[in-house]
Write a structure and sequence with these properties.
The chain is mainly α and 222 residues long. The protein has one domain. The chain has ten helices and no strands. The protein has helices at 3-19, 36-42, 63-76, 91-99, 107-125, 134-145, 157-173, 185-190, 201-205, 218-221. Helix 6 (134-145) crosses helix 7. The longest helix has 19 residues, at 107-125. The termini are far apart. Mean pLDDT is 81; it is low at 16-55.
Amino acid sequence: MSKHDVARRDLLAGAAFGAGVVASAGLMPEASAQTHAQRAAAEAPVPAHAHPNVNGHGAFFNEEDAETVAAFTERIMPGAPGKPGARDAEVLNYIDLALAGAYADLQDFYRRGLAQLDAYCRKTHGVPFVRLPVAGQDEVIKAVEEDKAGEFAWPTAQAFFTTIRTHTMEGMLADPIYGGNRDFAGWRLVGFPGGQPLFTPEDLESAQAFTREPIVGLQERA
């Protein structure tokens, strides 16, 4: 894993707590029994869509678009040995299910954004995004993030990047019942305990990430 990847992972993991991305509202004990990081996560709103965890894709994306989204999200949240990334957490599955449900109003946004991404990659590099080497994919993502990628009209390149980045973080950190965060990969990454039925006195005094098994999600609580 490159220094670039490590820096990106650290930045996004920190941003996840800073923005309160984790979708697990209402499962934590009262605020006095939480660390600052746990409180920020517990106060985040739960997305309007809820689906059982279904492996793969097919609810909305076709095969080609699924490969592109999987590759793009993996570069946003790259995996490494012992450090789960977007593929490990099945972020693609989360986004696919969301676009077939509560995020259905973004279907055309994704269709047009992915088509424009493909046009930009083919014009600039001669191949689609998924066939670029990692360095080339990062170069494209940087251009998209900075709104410097040609071929984009609506959505704008920057809007497209921001939306996929947001959905990547949701797929990493939302409760697994929504289709991502497989095996609590994202929660384990940031030390979030999920909906524990109780905390020990040692837990309440600790400022360290929560690591004790089991981590409890909505499915277990249901």
